[in-house]
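Box 3.1 A note on notation
Throughout this textbook, protein chains are presented in two layers. The first layer is the amino acid sequence; the second is a token string describing backbone geometry. Keep the layers aligned when reading.
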Amino acid sequence: MSDKEYVKIAVRNDFPSPDSIIIKDILGNIMTKDEMITAYEQGGLTTDFYKNRKGDIVEVVVRKSTSADQDLEAQINKKLNAAPPVTVSQIDCKNIISLLDEAYRRDQEIRTGEGLYDAMVDHKNLELVISVDQVCGLPKGVENEKQINIIWLVIQHSKAEYRKRYISYFVEANEAGAIDAGSIALMKDRMAMDDGKPQIYGSQLIGDNLYNLRDASTVDQRRASVGLDSLKEYLARFGVSFEVVQE
């Protein structure tokens, strides 16, 4: 499969089920789906896809990823992060608290319960945060902890360029005691994924699979340093297993 075809399929998330294809390692040995998942948990791997004459994906080969693979992942994430332009609105700065509370409600409505995900809700929330920033200035200090954490949620659920733009704001908020270190860690993982690089703390999933993880055997040490529970406990909440022995 060409890189162009791979990017197109990845953007559509149109990969076949692992149960319907042949899975091999780089030496040509047949792997089970569980063996592939376990291998991916170690980090540093990617998958090559092979089609039959009809154009159907029938086989995958699991191998170590390269810098070229990371560049390809970055291309995919760039396409996934494409978004309509942001419109800045004139807002009443006295109403920032209620406006952000409403943004939080919208965010949770499309992610919990029976609400259907709607990308335009995330975009509307992003436009609000950008408007607050440009018209009023973003809230600072521990006394604005709730509002800062809502802003973090909006930016975490927005596009890559805004995580890069605002990460320093959240780092400063953490230093002021307004947001915890675990939230910074989650955003840094998302930024690593944006750039096609291995994540550090293991917070990001693609479908039901853990996204590429750096140094899997020491991940719990890194998670503990920012106040997060073990990766096995975290992933269990999503029905995903993680059995890498920790140092």
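The CA atoms of residues 181 and 226 lie 5 Å apart. The chain has a mean pLDDT of 89.
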